[in-house]
Specification:
single chain, mainly beta, Immunoglobulin-like, Neuraminidase, 2 domains, six-stranded mixed β-sheet, five-stranded antiparallel β-sheet, about 5% helix, binds calcium ion
Length: about 575
């Protein structure tokens, strides 16, 4: 591993001696740089999506089946294009060029306590995995004395390009005691700009964040436990980890300094928008409401997302957990969800990702998430500051969806824990008639000329099931030739000429051509502009105009050549 970072011109013996010296001096592999605390800010990028209207459709395209209880999908950022799928039992599988490799990349089933909400729950690859061969896992321990505890561990492999890991070192960085078997969080993510490791921790388990192992006001609100939090630590180049000086509570008495955000019940899945650094958290609810929480990339941390003061937008009372009609509240200091939904739509929110891929530009900036219980999936975007809309887009079987994931290119995936299927989220461009044109058979005409106007409706997106209407009002100087209005599809209506009309349902027809004939009846010297208004039905009306020049009476000017 060290060899890869040394200049290629070093003689092998010198390289070995240097590597041994480095190891002796530093004590830990130092192929990756120790991290500075100053990179913590993403670029200033408008956060409002350009997609605008969520009018696209998505579908799930099966990449592979044959996975065993997949719960996480990620990539190594190493240019290999490989997908790494975490199996809850303790294995990481590789999907390469669309094929599931039979030999697991990593198999630690012997140290993992599975299943239910326990197991190997996620993996995060070091931003420089390609050179340092380092990745991190979050799993539930089965070792005597630590059964059920959360372990965050670092693995270093001999050859980062290999599809089967040869593990050089495995180091436990953090062990967190878990009072109950559920609500273990499980997500690991590297911040896209600060390169710190973010860790999602549930409230410890049970229900209502109360009882044995829970602080009197619940672990979510308790500053002296790592449970019910998002943690942020610096693991890169550290024997275990350090707390970044810029963490929000390092100077606040009574707070664990690892805390980045608090007030979470079970943030099973959270992610970063790789472009903006915004964080989206799917916080699984108790008996009533599932929610998505949001933290802008410019945040310095310290958000309190409300659990167990609140569930969704409503007050929460651990003694009355079945009451879903508690008052809507907004306690001071609590960051409210950007959306929440009740049991009619699902029972276990699965946080997803913001699309930043290349294949479907109309999805860029849109956040996708879903629900384990119902299998519903939604697209969501911020349409104005603080104003979010979401639209249901797709559904897979109930009690199957366990996680979303993204590849290096930003394409999105979903996995079914029960079905063992890895899907890619694919999309069809929204219906779009903006490439439609209007033209005339000539651009310069004389009185008495006969012209043909041609309107081409061109759909560059998915099928249009709406009725599209078209209205073309002839300007003075042009006289409609009766009966000349024709169309390759749909219905023409010239009964009110000089107002010409057409309507039709294009469906999968990519282009529809509409023509009519006019006679020029003016001899004035002028331009005549002829405009059609297109009413797509699914979008705002728009116009297309074509201007012809009329020769009219000719006026001749003397031409004087100077300096020739
Ligand atoms: Ca637990
Ligand atoms: Ca909340």
């Amino acid at each position: 591993m060290l060899r890869r970072t040394l200049p290629l011109c070093l003689p092998p013996l010198v390289a070995v001696v240097f590597a041994l010296w480095l190891w002796a001096v530093l004590g830990v592999p130092q192929a990756y740089p120790a991290h500075a605390d100053s990179l913590a800010h993403p670029p200033a990028i408008p956060r409002i999506s350009s997609a605008g209207s969520l009018t696209f459709t998505i579908s799930l395209s099966q990449v592979t089946s044959g996975l065993t209880a997949p719960v996480d999908v990620t990539h190594a950022g190493d240019g290999s294009g490989r997908l790494f799928v975490v199996e809850q039992t303790g294995r990481i599988r590789v999907v390469k060029n669309g094929s599931l490799l039979s030999a697991p990349f990593l198999n630690i089933t012997n140290i993992v306590q599975c299943c239910g909400e326990r197991g190997l729950l996620s993996a995060a690859f070091d931003p420089e995995y390609e050179t340092n061969g380092t990745f991190y896992v979050n799993y539930t321990a089965n070792a005597a004395g630590n059964v059920g505890d959360t372990v965050i561990a670092r693995y270093v492999v001999a050859n980062p390009a290999a599809d089967v890991a040869t593990v050089l070192t495995a180091t436990n960085l953090i062990t967190i005691d878990q009072p109950q078997s559920n609500h273990n969080g499980g997500q690991l993510q590297f911040g896209p700009f600060d390169h710190y490791l973010y860790i999602g921790m549930g409230d410890g388990g049970g229900s209502g964040d109360s009882g044995s192992g829970h602080a009197p006001g619940g672990n979510g609100q308790s500053p002296d436990t790592l449970l019910g939090k998002i943690l942020r630590v610096n693991v890169r180049g550290m024997p275990t980890y350090t707390v970044p000086a810029s963490n929000p509570f390092t100077q606040t008495a009574g707070y664990r300094p690892e805390i980045w955000a608090l007030g979470l019940r079970n943030p099973w899945r959270f992610s970063f928008d790789r472009l903006t650094g915004d964080m989206y958290i799917g916080d699984v609810g108790q008996n009533c409401y599932e929610e998505i929480d949001f933290q802008p990339g410019t945040s310095q941390g310290g958000e309190n997302y409300g659990w167990r003061l609140m569930e969704g937008f409503r007050a929460f009372d651990p003694a009355d957990m079945g009451n879903c009609n508690q008052p809507i509240v907004a306690p001071v200091g609590v960051t409210l969800p950007i959306t929440a939904y009740g049991r009619s739509l699902g029972s276990t929110v699965i946080g997803g990702y913001v699309y930043r891929g290349a294949a479907y530009p109309w999805l860029r900036g849109v956040y996708f998430f879903g629900d384990f219980g119902s299998g519903r999936m939604w697209a969501m975007e911020q349409v104005s500051p603080g104003n979010w809309v979401s639209v249901e887009k797709e559904q897979i079987g109930g009690s199957d969806l366990t996680s979303f994931g993204e590849d290096e290119a930003g394409e999105l995936y979903a996995v079914g824990g029960a079905s063992g299927i890895l899907y890619q989220i694919v999309s069809t461009a929204p219906s779009d008639l903006s490439l439609s044109t209007k033209s005339a058979s000539t651009v310069i005409a004389d009185a008495g000329n006969v012209l043909t106007y041609t309107i081409v409706l061109r759909n560059s997106g998915e099928a249009i099931a709406d009725t599209v209407r078209l209205t073309d009002v002839l300007p003075s100087g042009l006289t409609y030739q009766p009966g000349s209005l024709t169309a390759t599809l749909g219905s023409v209506d010239d009964s009110a000429a000089s107002t010409l009309k057409w309507n039709g349902v294009p469906l999968n027809t990519p282009t529809i051509t509409i023509t009519y004939i006019v006679t020029v009846t003016t001899s004035a010297t002028q331009a005549v502009s002829n405009t059609v208004t297109i009413h797509p039905g699914f979008a705002a009306p728009f116009t297309r105009s074509v201007t012809i020049l009329l020769n009219g009476p000719r006026i001749y000017f003397p031409i004087v050549f100077k300096n020739r």
